[in-house]
Amino acid sequence: MAETSTPRTDVSQTNAALSNPRADLESLDELERRLFSLRYAIDEIGSLGPVIDPPRATEERAEALAELERQRAQTLSNPLVGGVLERLGKCPELLSDTQKAQLRVLGRDRDELVRVPADEQAAFSRLTCEAEDVWRRAKAASDWESFAPYLDRIVAARVNMAKERDGGRDPYDVWLDDFEPGCDRAFYDTFFSQVKDVVVPLLADCSASRHQPSRACVEGSFDVERQWALARDLVRLEGVDEDALWLGRTEHPFTGGPSTGFVLIAGHVHEDDVLSNAFTMLHEGGHALYEQGVDPAYRYTSLKGGTSMGMHEAQSRFFENYVGRSEAFARPLLDALARHFPGRFARVTPRQLYLAENRAEPGLIRTEADELTYPLHILVRYEIEQLLFSGEATAADVPRLWAEKYRAYLGVEVPDDARGALQDTHWANGEFGYFPTYALGSAFGAQLRHAMVAGGVDLEGACAAGDLAPVRDWLRERIWRWGRAKDSFELIRDACGEVFSPTYYTDYLAEKFSALYRLGA
Amino acid sequence: MAETSTPRTDVSQTNAALSNPRADLESLDELERRLFSLRYAIDEIGSLGPVIDPPRATEERAEALAELERQRAQTLSNPLVGGVLERLGKCPELLSDTQKAQLRVLGRDRDELVRVPADEQAAFSRLTCEAEDVWRRAKAASDWESFAPYLDRIVAARVNMAKERDGGRDPYDVWLDDFEPGCDRAFYDTFFSQVKDVVVPLLADCSASRHQPSRACVEGSFDVERQWALARDLVRLEGVDEDALWLGRTEHPFTGGPSTGFVLIAGHVHEDDVLSNAFTMLHEGGHALYEQGVDPAYRYTSLKGGTSMGMHEAQSRFFENYVGRSEAFARPLLDALARHFPGRFARVTPRQLYLAENRAEPGLIRTEADELTYPLHILVRYEIEQLLFSGEATAADVPRLWAEKYRAYLGVEVPDDARGALQDTHWANGEFGYFPTYALGSAFGAQLRHAMVAGGVDLEGACAAGDLAPVRDWLRERIWRWGRAKDSFELIRDACGEVFSPTYYTDYLAEKFSALYRLGA
Lengths: 521, 521
Description:
The structure is a homodimer. The first copy, chain A, has about 525 residues and is mostly helical. Chain A contains 21 helices and three strands. Chain A has helices spanning about 1-5, 10-50, 60-75, 80-90, 95-115, 120-140, 145-165, 170-180, 185-210, 225-240, 275-295, 310-325, 330-340, 350-355, 375-390, 400-410, 435-455, 460-465, 470-480, 490-495, 505-515; strands at about 245-250, 255-260, 260-265. In chain A, strand 2 and strand 3 (about 260-265) form a beta hairpin. The longest helix of chain A is centred in the N-terminal third of the chain and has 45 residues, at about 10-50. Residues about 1-20 of chain A have low confidence and may be disordered.
């Protein structure tokens, strides 16, 4: 019917206007397929490398990754691509919502690269690949000296790249914004000050309390192979799709995802700490759920994968803490532990397990930190990164700064660099501005938790039953499926019906730990 | 001194001539780095995929591989690359021997691609990735019907690609030449007829002999995990560099090599056949030694890796048969078996093991075949491939043809397709023309063995001592280090001081099996 009412001239005009965008839309698809394949290769080679590759693989792997990164950068920064994105941006009426989101994300990815020469990107990739290897050996030997020159070189390279990208902006702000679009030092300074104002006195009160939770019920030695079987059971319980999962072993646990059908989790088991493994798995499983939960329609586009480090961390911490360390979940967790270690947990109650897993104890290792002290570990790193980027400190100062800040915020003495500034792999990988997203993610997660419960999900019931389908459904619908099509702050606003606020996080911590330690009781 | 005798005009002319080649040499290096990274990605993703990826990874992996293949093809077939190769080819005086070899190999790789459209290459990669998955399930269910349509499509695609590449040539000849430069049906027809003339009557004599070697000493059940430990021990004994090795588990054993520092061996253990595992490992280890032994100077060039399938197979069969199944090596092999299965081999003599491992027995499974019957398994496949490519047969005819030829050459009845035409993965991967190289490789190996001994290497002593360093040194110097810088027939000629002759192979088989079966005794 529309045909009869549409004059022929309009049709031919539309065709003329379409002719160019049609070719541009084909170019967009071709670009996305190429980027998909390069990301796939970089993710698989980069993720598996440190986990399965033999020692002599390092040098050639570094070269391959640098070259693939260079091709990704060259592809994105090609002026022809700029033209396609620009022309398509002028015809929003021809674009689906997905294509509009692709343009936005591609434009941003392109902006990140176009001002940094491809050779420099490649050299940086090579440097960090080498540094990762040096760091691994430095950590094993607790030898800061061998790693320090690499840290200085990596910081210098990062400062330089930030200046090339936006000379008018503070270099550290550039990287903070990369890991979490919309964030800078001003934002994080405010955020961390709110967190510190609550957590530091709360931790002091907990430490002073007469009611110290005991970890006795989870102490002792736990067979490593049984722990690996437990690990697999826990990601299954969490609802990770095992048909799209590879589970491996590494020094520093992580989750990677070449594709929505191929997510990698590498864990680490400590014979003397069964809970460490359990919560690592719930944490990494949360990352895996996010990757697997992205709309399959996005899989060959730049919208594939989580939207930011902070939102990724929100999912992992949701399952680690808001599910995993809840009192309700202590029952199914205890059942899982008892299944793999028959007899060992016969006399343990869910309440005892809940207390044991939530003991707030200032420690040295970030990845082993409890929920309350965790953001203080992040604060130390955030402050040191600022000093390195402002030039107020160099790598040589880091062990001293580390020791001072751990003493000041956590009240612990750092005995060596392996348990100090060498504990994390992030700096070796050039990932400055990443750590703050861990704390921010907890705050995102707390707000999501509040909105989920306010929206009618029986979170406690789901945890108690060990059936997390309602939790996954809520998060998949509001967060996961969107991939990179929405930024974190937009996701939070749409999912929660209000803008981001760290109060849900600090309120949650205050309530939980006041009850646990019977403060004011 | 030369300067004074060289007129200025000559120098400036040389400079003018150099200005272009210099840029071209830089382009050559850039091209090689890019190809290296794409090959690295394709090899790692493609090799590890079927071994470690979860089931849902298949579709996206296929897409990633197809797209990476497309980029490799686009890179090589770019007309600018053709110009660079052509211009450099005209200035041999400016090129090192390595660069000359690069030009030759790149030119050949380019010729293989330039006439086949990139989209067709990508579609083929996607088709075989899917077919590999279908084949896996078809084999498990012994269901030829489900795989047959894929085989017809793959053959049709291969015929079409061969015609695009060289319309004046028989399509099957094109692929035979790809896997082994210089070979065609005429060559292989002669080769196989020589082999058949010796092997078929020899096998008949062996079968009729009163002296049948017994396998009793290696029969029974052998713990799978202990067999994996044995597998690692055997590649170590063979001299594979474990710091550049990843050892995994798969259905169909293979060796892959993203880089000289990262070689992958995937093996397969049968609980009821400990020798199968042992010789698979020695075989794959031979491939690994070749990959690891290439001149490190070649690692970022197209000269990296083995020169052809036939020469690769020569190395694997050298270590599997000419070392592994020799009487001298029975002692160190028996020691290894006894270490991993204490008590089981206490009463076995090296002579008994030697007889057990060399029993010539017509069977159904190529990869389990003994040295004597092996080329007959290849002959069946070679003849069927010819029929498929000439159009005289389609996939529907294959089970019948398979049964007829196994009856005729090997005297065995094929009970089902899993133990028939579905046993190998090659056709699912589109690798027609590959099988004949297995038999040719044995013949290459036999000639190398003869030359090595004639050249003064104490092969028997090295085998008896379980120290294969002299064998490796001889092969590394003459074969491995050259990578793709020389073709097989050139390598054979340079290593052996004469052109290729299959007589060394047939003489070896006749001598070995006549003695084993005491023929004419």
